[in-house]
């Protein structure tokens, strides 16, 4: 059960989204649902509107499923294999300059891809899907198996599906599969300089 409580008023979907490891193996994810997730990601903000995010996906039962799943470390394979889809989110590490044919490193490619992932995850939660992003995968093999261009960085692999029963999780994961809490604002928000307490007013969810 999700017992999260915000300290200030926020959109309900933000609290509802959490990273379960329990997926329903009997419930597929269809292409229309995936399209909605990618559409949400498409509208993420990015530096200079460069939109550096790229996605490679496989549906459970597709020809590419085993190859995508096998990129995960064994621990993640143990539960993510029950998801309906796996998505590798990548970012383009360089950008075109004004000089034709010339490119330069992008400072914000990972930051921008993270914004796209956040919108994808919120969209998923809003339509009854669960997501769990993992950085526990073989990056070098992902580049090869997914045939990524040399300027593409695989950032994470995202499991997508409908939430399943915690009882179906491997031993050691059942108790851990609950919505996690977050640090209070005063531990990471500062005013004027790092370490200076921010004046934001009393906590309130009204």
TrEMBL record:
It comes from the Bacteria. Residues 14-62, 76-162 form the Nitroreductase domain. Belongs to the nitroreductase family. Transmembrane segments: none annotated. Gene3D superfamilies: NADH Oxidase. One of its GO terms (molecular function) is oxidoreductase activity. Its EC number is 1.6.99.-. InterPro entries: Nitroreductase, Nitroreductase-like. It is an enzyme of class 1 (oxidoreductase). The keyword Oxidoreductase applies. Keywords: Oxidoreductase. Signal peptide: none annotated. This is Major NAD(P)H-flavin oxidoreductase.
């Amino acid at each position: 059960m999700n017992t999260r409580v915000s300290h200030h008023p926020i959109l309900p979907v933000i609290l509802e989204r959490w990273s379960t490891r329990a997926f329903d193996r009997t419930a597929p994810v269809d292409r229309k649902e995936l399209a909605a997730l990618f559409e949400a990601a498409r509208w993420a903000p990015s530096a200079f509107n460069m939109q550096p995010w790229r996605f490679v996906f496989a549906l459970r039962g597709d020809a590419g499923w085993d190859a995508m799943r096998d990129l995960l470390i064994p621990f993640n394979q143990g539960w993510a294999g029950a998801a309906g889809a796996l998505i590798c989110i990548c970012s383009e590490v360089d950008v075109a300059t004004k000089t034709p044919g010339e490119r330069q490193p992008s400072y914000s490619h990972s930051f921008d891809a993270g914004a796209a992932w956040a919108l994808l995850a919120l969209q998923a939660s809003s339509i009854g899907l669960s997501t769990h992003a993992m950085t526990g995968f073989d990056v070098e093999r992902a580049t090869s198996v997914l045939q990524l261009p040399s300027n593409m960085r695989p950032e994470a692999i995202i499991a997508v599906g409908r939430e399943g029963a915690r009882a179906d999780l491997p031993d050691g994961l059942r108790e851990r599969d609950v919505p996690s809490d977050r640090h209070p604002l005063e531990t990471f928000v500062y005013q004027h300089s790092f370490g200076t307490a921010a004046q934001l007013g009393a906590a309130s969810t009204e």
